[in-house]
Amino acid sequence: MVKVYAINGVTPVVHPTAYVHPSAVLIGDVIVGARCYVGPLASMRGDFGRLILEEGANLQDTCVMHGFPGEDTVVEADGHIGHGAVLHGCRIKRNAMVGMNAVVMDRAVVGEESIVAAMSFVKAGMVIPPRSMVMGMPARIMRELTEQEVNWKSFGTRQYHDLAVRSMDTMREVEALTEVEPNRARIDLGPDPHTHKE
């Protein structure tokens, strides 16, 4: 059971196939779609504008989503928001990625299948075309993404689809062990496409 907070009579909505970590905070006008993943300590504060994660999007550890009254902050389908990123009043289009600790400001639009590099600052109102690599403070469009880079991003997002299912199926609050057990198991997810050769 996800613990959420209503404000002004508006209660967050979490699709039954989405995973929201118990330490995440969801307040007010928040809509989390099917197959989404919301990580530990993420904050979705829908006390002014509406916050939407569309199907298959992920919002990772310590991310913040917030916005202005009467406006929506949206991560479209399969959007991928890296650890510690801040989204304020912006739109992240389908299958785009915002890297770790990046900031995307009000009325900015990150185009479909684009990547905002880690630590970048996307200024208010910036419109990023599809399949762009964006980086810097302030962020600038550097080049078009390659097919390989888009495929890499898409693979990473599929891992978060799987993580939502694994988390719902196997994550439990438990007592810590006091020592490492013999033959300690590892989490095996199969070959890593970054190192695997065909």
UniProtKB/TrEMBL annotation:
CDD domains assigned to the protein according to its UniProt record, in alphabetical order: LbH_paaY_like
Protein name: Phenylacetic acid degradation protein PaaY
Pfam families, per database record: Hexapep
Gene3D superfamilies, per database record: Hexapeptide repeat proteins (2.160.10.10)
Highest taxon of the lineage: Bacteria
Coiled coil: none
